[in-house]
Amino acid sequence: MAKKSSCEYCMYYQYNEDYEYYECVINLDEDEMMRFLSDSHQSCPHFKYGDDYSVVKKQM
C-alpha cells in the first residue's frame, strides 16, 4: 500500500463529502483487488500524480 504522503498527491485519493474523509476511488475488479491486497508493495502500483494543470492542458 502507498504511504499516506503518497496518497495525498494521487488523483485517485478523493474526499468523500457524505462520510467526511478521504478514500481511494480506483476501480478494481475482483482479480485485481486480490492481487493488490495479497502483494506487499513499498508503494502503490496504481499511483498517478494528480496535477490540476494536466486537466487544463487536455482542454486546450
Automatic annotation (TrEMBL):
Residues 4-60 form the DUF6472 domain. Pfam families: DUF6472 (PF20076). This is DUF6472 domain-containing protein. It comes from Lacrimispora amygdalina.
